[in-house]
Design goal:
This protein is of the alpha+beta class. 45% of the residues lie in helices and 13% in strands.
């Protein structure tokens, strides 16, 4: 609450700006009724106060934003406020009420003085109770009991066997509180942007001073100015506004629902973006190598974590190029296949009416269709449909002579490999790139695959995340950071202060 005194305006003063609260109660009520016309959840309650209850006031609130079970108790609080807040030896009049709240305190129950009508409307829509008094050109806004939000539970999208279990929720204040509990440092800065657009969604970002690159932070804040007057509903809205290349299949930012992942990112100099109403946090900037890392890599032993990380890299190659390799070898380079395996492939493809590329496209399309159907269906039946559907369609395709058994195996391995990638949005990019690589393989064989991979690598070399190279620390090459790329070095060599990590990078 501001310490600025709020003066009492007598009833005769009618010179009010359009945004100002009127000192006439009837005028304020008329404006409220006009603003919230056809809004059946907006409730107004009239009050009387004073020694003979001769003065009037009224409160406005949205009943859909307040719990009913606690509202009766809150009504008593409002009654006590109106009748007993000024000193008991002073007559309760509009003048004393306005003077008391302006010069002493709004209330002992966390209320604010509102000086403009738009602020009053915003307070009502945020779930507060706003009280207007006759002959006072201000209003009181009380923080009412909010709606129940989802409790802190285990992350569904980022499960781990070992490590913390807590996940973010749809309340931005709770999420920021969990970050503050994990990183108890005054260097943790939290910037909350003013609500904008019609949704009035609260957006906040956080960084660790001393760890974040000042140039990256300045570029981030410059791009965040584009959010003004936009209706933000989810974190992904901000991703598309901040990213360098909108049409790239590779995501330039990471998502997480885990507070330990967000805290580790802050220690590495990243910026975390949070949006009220969604549990996903945006980590920026993000690089290619980070898309293959999981929080559990740092909770397992070094050897185990390194082997799992190498397995993920191998999974990326399988998810991206296995169908293309099959097309290239079976169509152009059959002499490179061992004789026994070649005979098995020829026998399995006997009677198949389509070339290998058409067969691969059909099976990949059916697999992607089943995966999407399993996601969109209700959870109790989604997994059953996707698993049973894959088995039934695979078996039926083989029996009908549409696909060979080896193609069904290749498509299944490709899908399983994409599931091993920790970042779901990164796996989506690989699924998109798989189809043009298959076309390159169908026209040019193994040389087409090499050309496709070269084009992808050139794209990655030019891609930026908040102006930073996407291939960092591979290109440009940062030797001291290579300990946490392909393998995970022992933690004693990785656990350094943020300032030491910042100094690892050469200054540009």
């Amino acid at each position: 609450m501001s310490d600025k005194p709020v003066s009492f305006v007598p009833a005769s003063d009618e010179s009010l700006a359009d945004a100002a609260i009127s000192n006439r109660l009837a005028a304020n009520r008329e404006r409220i009724d006009h603003t919230f016309i056809n809004c059946s959840d907006i409730i107004t309650l009239s009050w009387s106060y004073g020694s003979d209850m001769q003065y009037e006031a009224y409160s406005v609130y949205a009943k859909t934003l307040i719990q009913k079970k606690d509202f009766n108790a809150f009504k008593e609080t409002l009654k006590d406020l109106v009748e007993g807040s000024p000193p008991p030896d002073v007559d309760v009049t509009p003048q004393t009420v306005s003077y008391y709240f302006s010069h002493h305190a709004a209330s002992s129950k966390s209320a604010d003085i509102i000086e403009s009508f738009p602020e009053a409307v915003d307070a009502i829509l945020e779930g507060n109770i706003v009280i207007f008094f006759d002959q006072w050109n201000c209003a009181l806004s009380y923080k009412a009991v909010g709606l129940e939000t989802r409790q802190v539970t285990e992350s569904v999208t980022e499960p781990v066997v070992q490590g913390p279990r807590e996940s973010t929720v749809e309340s931005i204040s709770k999420n920021l509180g969990m970050l503050r509990l994990r990183l108890k440092s005054p260097d943790l800065k939290i910037i909350t942007l003013p609500p904008s657009g019609r949704t009035k969604t609260t957006v906040a970002y956080s960084y660790l001073q001393g760890a974040v690159n000042p140039e990256v932070l300045a570029e981030f804040e410059r791009r965040m100015t584009k959010l003004r007057d936009l209706d933000i509903l989810e974190t992904s809205y901000i991703e598309e506004i901040l990213e360098d290349s909108t049409y790239s299949p590779f995501p330039q930012f990471r998502y997480t629902e885990r507070t330990d992942v967000a805290t580790a990112a802050l220690l590495e100099g990243k910026i975390i973006v949070l949006v009220d109403g969604t549990g996903s946090m945006l980590i920026c900037p993000s690089f290619l190598v980070e898309m293959l890392q999981s929080s559990e890599d740092y909770y397992q032993r070094t050897v185990v974590s390194s082997l799992i990380r190498l397995l993920r890299i191998f999974a990326v190659l399988i998810a991206l190029g296995l169908p293309s390799l099959y097309i290239a070898f079976s169509t152009f380079h059959s002499e490179l296949i061992p004789t026994v395996l070649l005979i098995a492939v020829i026998n399995s493809r006997e009677g198949i009416p389509f070339p290998a590329v058409i067969e691969a496209f059909i099976m990949e399309f059916l697999f992607e269709l089943l995966r999407e159907a399993g996601i969109r269906l209700p959870r109790p039946v989604g997994s059953a449909v996707s698993i049973v559907g894959a088995l039934v369609i695979g078996e039926a395709s083989i029996n009908a002579g549409i696909a060979s058994p080896i193609m069904v195996i290749i498509v299944a391995l490709t899908g399983i490999a994409s599931f091993a990638i920790p970042q779901y949005n990164f796996a989506y990019g690989l699924r998109l790139l798989r189809f043009p690589i298959m076309l390159f393989a169908a026209f040019l064989g193994i040389f087409g695959i090499l050309i496709a991979f070269l084009l992808i690598w050139l794209h990655l070399a030019t891609l930026r995340s908040l102006g930073q190279p996407y291939l960092s620390p591979i290109g440009p090459f940062y030797p001291k950071q290579m300990k946490d790329v392909f393998i995970r070095a022992p933690l004693r060599t990785l656990m350094r202060s943020p300032r030491m990590m910042k100094n690892d990078k050469p200054q540009h």
